[in-house]
Amino acid sequence: MPLSTYCISYPSPDNPDSHILFLTKSSAKALITSSLLLAIDQETITEAEKASLQRPGFIVDDIEQERTDMAGFTERVSSLSRIFYVKLVMNLDCNLACAYCFEGSRKGRLYMSGSTADLFAEFVKGRLSPNKKEIRVTFYGGEPLLSSRRIIYIAARLKDLAEEKGIDFGFSLVTNGTLLTREIVDQLKPLGLRTASVTLDGPGDIHDRYRPFTSGKGSFATILANIKAVCDMTGIQIGGNYTRENFCQFPRLLDCLMENGLTPERISDIRFDPVTGESDEFVLPDFREACLSMDEPWLNEASVYLREEILRRGYRVGRIVPVVCMMEQQDNLVVNYNGDIYKCAGLIGRKEFCVGDLNTGIKDFHLSHNLDNWKNERCLSCAYLPLCFGGCRYLKLIRDGDMKGVDCRKSYLDAVLESLVLQDVKYANQILK
Amino acid sequence: MSQSIVILDEGLKMEDLSGTECCTGAEGRK
Fold first, then answer.
1. What is the pLDDT of residues A245-268, one digit of tens each?
2. What is the tens place of the pLDDT at every residue in A4-23?
3. I need a labelling partner for A390 at 20 to 30 A (CA). Which of A230, A293, A373, B11 fits?
4. What are the DSSP E strand ranges found in A316-397?
5. Confidence grade of residue A232 (pLDDT, cut at 50, 70, 90)
6. Which residues of B touch A46 (CB under 8 A)?
7. Domain containing A206 — which CATH number?
8. Do A77 and B17 touch (CB under 8 A)?
9. Smallest CA–CA separation between B28 and chain A, in Å?
């Protein structure tokens, strides 16, 4: 039996004459002797070894059948999902003036109305299929906490709906953190608040340059104080957006968190990502540090380095897992403040990628979003496919002006995956499941 | 299990793979 197409082996740094097997389609890992790796290739392994390797899927009966099955992988994940998930854009307004704002020129005093909130609750009720066991919402913006009263109203309605159906309901906030006070968390927690994702773009001096209030005043001190005040009430995820110019400074943020008592057990997890760009239509004209691809060599160094800095201080990070984009998952939606429906937060406001609205429902978007872009021999025979599935269609769109073809991540994964997998092994207790 | 193999991580089941993570982080950015 051969190794799975989606199994990669790396020499173990801690165990001479051993290799780590990593299965990209499930994130399974094994430590095996180098002689066994050779025996797999020569088909001389014992029955016991075969059984141990076959059960998690490291070796397979039939390579061709495995690739055929892989072509249906995302559909199966989507159909097995028990979660109805919506990212709900409450407004496109903000009290910060971030240099790189991802909403760019789409921002304005645009808020979800009461009637749209009602329509949304009815939409969820109507679309909830019997196999769903959980309604999960991320309140998003703009700055969602500028719409806190509306969030409370919607959460209460969805909580009632979930109770009526006998299923779970929970929600998270993607917030800049400036309004995340104990008072608001006290109100949201009983309604189902689980986590708040708060952005800190590096240590205070850098963060304040990139994420000032609209008045120009820095926001770091306010956000840090709020995190300290609420981190024992709700889960706090810290995110940060770095650039080529400033990523080396991000470890100073981690030290600052420690110095302020925000030790690893008080923070759910930390994730830093590069500032990605925008198309000319929405981009802020004065910001030129964004990247349009994961295929930039400096990103290889930055992503591994920053993840290591987070881990070696004891904080938790997300595991390297197969990523099925929300575009490929039937019950994963983005609903804009006005009721328009999209399949990615990056696409809001692009009418050609609007897939419907709360009144009329969702139209077929298979072709417009190029969902089958990775179903070709080259991608199906690539070990990285489950970590990529054609890459990011949004980045492809803003870089090339269309979603045709794939946003291939092979060179990026060639450069970083070994280091990331070895981090997952070394720091296994800090890797989120 | 043979001594030549140590399973470090059984991996995730397909039903556990649905979620809201995003390969570039663009989806959760703010």
1. 999 999 999 999 999 999 999 999
2. 999 999 999 999 999 999 99
3. B11
4. 317-318, 332-335, 340-342, 356-357, 361-362
5. very high
6. 2
7. 3.20.20.70
8. yes
9. 7
The answer to whether residue A401 is domain-embedded is no
| Residue A58 sits in the same domain as residue A162 | no
Domain that holds residue A198: 82-318
Of B4, B9, B28, which has the smallest distance from its Cβ to A33's Cβ? Answer: B4
Kindly tell me if the per-residue pLDDT of B20 is higher than 70: no
Is A344 in contact with A393 (CB distance < 8 Å)?
Answer: yes
Q: Which two tokens stand for residue A14?
A: 């801690």
| Residue A77 within a domain | no
User: pLDDT by residue (tens digit) across A331-353?
Assistant: 999 999 999 999 999 999 999 99
Place of tokens 């390579």: A63
Q: Which candidate from B5, B18, B23 shows the least CB-CB separation from A83?
A: B18
Closest-CA residue of B relative to A52 is B1
Size (chain A), residues: 433
Q: Do B11 and A26 touch (CB under 8 A)?
A: yes
The domain boundary residue, chosen from A298, A318, A338:
A318
ipTM: 0.90
> Is residue A332 in some structural domain?
no
Q: Tell me which residue has tokens 């045709």.
A: A404
Using the predicted structure, report yes or no on whether residue A278 has a pLDDT greater than 50.
yes
